[in-house]
Structures are given as structure tokens and as C-alpha cells.
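Quick question about two entries, pasted in order.
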Amino acid sequence: MGLDPNLRAATTKGALKTVFEQCTGVTYVVNPWADMLQTIAEVGRSFDGEFPTLRVFAAEEPLRTARKDFTLGSKLADLGDAGDAAFRTGDVPETTLIVDDEQLFSPVIAGDMIGATRNTDESFVTDTYETLTDQWETADVFDLRTPGRDSVRETMTAEFGKTPQEDFDTVVSSIEGSRSSRELDEVVVSLLVAAKNELLLYDISKWGENVGLASKATFSRRKNDLEEMGIVDTEKAPTDVGRPRQRLKLTDERLQQADGDQLAVVAQNILH
């Protein structure tokens, strides 16, 4: 067998970047752990060069976790939207592997280092690749049900302008990787940003439903929750036709005075 144990790095990101630089074409990522999915999203979005087409064959639990976390799910969705990754689940092998049609990598964590053993034995790699291809064909497609971050940016800018979009990006970036507050999800962030910029509830909820963040009913419920907490309020905004609509406003003085990068921290303190 052709084994090279010397692919190692100080971080998962460094190791995966090195591996993906050596992979070409359709590449299977088998049984990734949760943090590995996060790294795949980061590497894929910033990759300099031709990124391999990933077939991520994962257990259902880490994919469900990714779907619940907008900061991660939206990045993975970007890879899917670009045709750089697809996600399936099923009877996943227990070993974590990255395999293209010429080589097989086995990631290994050792203390503070992460590395990968590389196998280039033609017969072994071909058999593994063909087996994974057969398993992939019968595996269940996993729908992330999360809009890509790029799609959110583009549609929000088109609908509301650059400032609300930049506020949204700033808040989402500030909570990235944090599991401390499930209350501060993508719907609450959208409502806080809308209130900061005094947008209409109707407009932000319609946009959120169209882009795939949540239903208008969910936006309305979360707005009511924030109103009960004294975080946001609404005022009537006259329209040319029909009933007046509700304009969102921040009512908590701490939020009113917070810059975009402070909004998440202040909101988390209030929501706890």
C-alpha cells in the first residue's frame, strides 16, 4: 500500500484545506463529526482554486444539528447552491474518510494536532470508491432547509438596502459558533435588525418567508415574544391601500444605543 502519514496540521481547517487541495472531481466525505462540518463550510467558502465536488455522507444527527444552527447551515447551503456539495444520510460507515477516485484520507486527531493518513493503493481506493458510490445512490437526500448566506445577503440588500443587510451580517457573525443562546436565532436577529432600521413587520416577515428563513406566522409569534419582553414595539404606518401596517422599533434603551457589533451581546443579555 502507498501510505503517507505525514499530512498533519495544528487545526482541522488546515488539515482539510491540505486534503481538499489534493482531491479532484467527486470526493466523498464519510462520517464527518459535527465540528468537521463547520470546517468544511469554512474551507469551501474561502477555497482558493478548484474545489472538489463533495458528497457528504453523514449520520443524521450532525446534519440535524447543522440545520438547526443558521450560522452553519447557511454556509453549507452556500456550498450546495454552488454545486460544490450534496448531503445524504443512511447506513453510514463508522470510519471517517475522505475519498476521491485516486486516494483515500483517514483523518486522525492526536492531542493538539490533526492529521490524515493517505492511501494511494489503486485496488483498495477503487474498491472503496465504488462501494461508496453504490451506498450513495441508495442513501437518503438530506434537505438542510436553510437558505444560503449569499442568498440571504442578496435578497436582503435588494429588498431593504445595504445598511440592514450589513447589520444582519454583523449580528450573525458575532454569534457564530456560539451555542449559549438558542433564543437569538435567525428570526429574532431579523426582527432586531428590522427594528433597528424601523422596517415594517409585514415586509421583513414576507422577505423571511420568501427566502426560506421561517413562515410569516413564525415571525409574528417571535415579534409578540419580543414585545412582551419590552425589546421591540410597533407603531402604525399608514399605507396607500388597506389597513395600516406595523413599523418595528427598538424600545430597550440599551439596544437603541448599541452598534451593530454590540447588538447581539446586548440582546443575549436581555433574553437570558
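Here is the second entry:
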Amino acid sequence: MTISAAERSIRARFPLIRFMQAYMPLSVSRWLLRLSVSRLQLDPDVRREKVLADGVPCEWLITQNASPGQVLLYLHGGGFVLGITHLHIQMVATLAKMMAVRALMVDYRLGPEHPYPAALDDCVAAYRWLLKQGVRAQDIVLAGDSAGGNLALTSLLKLRDSVDPLPAAVACLSPVADFSDSTLPPPGFKDPLIPARVGRFYRDAYLGGHDAHDALVSPIFADLHGLPPLLVHAGEGELLHYDALRITELAKASEVEARVEIYPRMFHVWQIYLEMPEALQSLEDIAGFLNAHMRAAKTQPNPC
């Protein structure tokens, strides 16, 4: 398969990305990300609005073609320690345009200052806030990448167990499903983007000493019965594609409609690089999946 010029350019940055993750102080990384977000200019047809969702800072991305009654609730990645990036905003804006919905991005609390369950509580609070605003559960879809994929799954578990009405569907991009190290890669496997020591730091920052086998941090140990339809995308070249396969099989065994797509040669959350054809291909599939399930749920009565 031919590698695009965009992919070659991005792969050339991998050594620098790995170095920055491993050696740049977290405070500096966060400052640089905030700076890039502050300088971001989106297309004129996308409006950004900050909002507090019952005290949780969030940001609306509202496109000109958006249906006012339908919402994509998006949970960003970043190893549970980094906030929203300009690349995430651009990707979610593109996905919202494809879906013709409003998108709400949750700026949840971060570790290690705020370990589990702070981020999970913020994501659940943001979802419940949407319901309080009069948005029907059937008109909400949930998505997240990496750490945000984990939070999407665990938010659904917490909402289900609290008998909250659940969204129409969920899409996870390279989700973290297992903090317990029970999934081991083949000998010699090396993730091209995330050094092993960095992955351990992310895990410890979020867990804060909490049991890694708790289903609300490692959904691979959960009973997934009753969850909405699930789509999982992961890259063939990333460590988390093993989590993607396992969580999808668990969902199917729990009678959840589930599909996994492993993209050949792709790396962790490649969808943020919109110049790559594979990024748009993945986002188009996600948009189609989420929209189809919102349409299917539209005629259902609102759960009490």
C-alpha cells in the first residue's frame, strides 16, 4: 500500500514526539498546548463557545450545518494528564461538520493532581448536564480517543449502573481498556509514538494508587450488558490495538452491538492528522455509525 506524503511527514516527527513525551516537564507541555489552543483559528463556519456544565469546563463547537437538537459529547485523549489540544479541536470540528451536529468537548480534571475518579466524575456530570438542558439521550452520541475512549466506556458503565438514560451510540478511537497489564504485546513490540515509561506514568497519574482491576478504570473487567452500540477504531501499529480487540469481543459477548476496525499501518489516534487520507476515512466511518444510530433511536420514547 502506498504511503502518502502526509504520512511520511508525520512519521518523521515521531522521534521528537517520543522525546518530548519522555523528557519535557509536564508543566511545559501543558503551557505549550494552551498556547497552541489560544492561537487556533478554525474555519469561519465553526463557532467556539466556552460553557460550564454544572461546574465542569467545556467548549461547544457549533457548525453552521448543525442540528440544534443533536449533540456529540467528545472526551479528549492526552494520557489523563494533558488537556484539550488544537489538533483535537480541529478533528472534533471536522467530525461535527460530517455529522451536522453540535459538539461539546469536556475539559475534565487531569492527573496526577486529580486522579481517579475526578475525570470520570466530570464526564458523567457533563452528560447529565446535557440532559438537564433538554437534550434527549437518543439525540446524544459519545466519543473519545485514548484516555477519552476509556472515559467514554467507563462513563457509560457509571450511567447505566445509576439508571440514567444512555446515549444512542459510542465511538472509541484507540481506547485504553486495561490498566492491569493483563494484555501483553508480542515480544519486541514497540509502540511508535508512546514509550513504555511514558505509558506507565500516564497510568499511575490517573490511578493514583487505585486498583487497576476496577471495572471503572479498566472496562475490560466490566459487565458490558445494556450498553449502546459501540464502534472501535485502532491502528495496526499501536499497542492499544490489543485493547481495542479485547473490549470489542467483550462487548459482543455481552450482547452489545459492536464493531472494531484495525487500520493497517496506522498509529495512535492518527485521526488528529487531518491531512492524512486515513484520518478522514476513519472520521467518515465514525460519523456514519453515530448518525445511523441517532436516526434509529429518534423514534424511540425517551427513557424515564
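Reply: The chain has a mean pLDDT of 95. The first helix runs from residue 5 to 11. Hope that helps.
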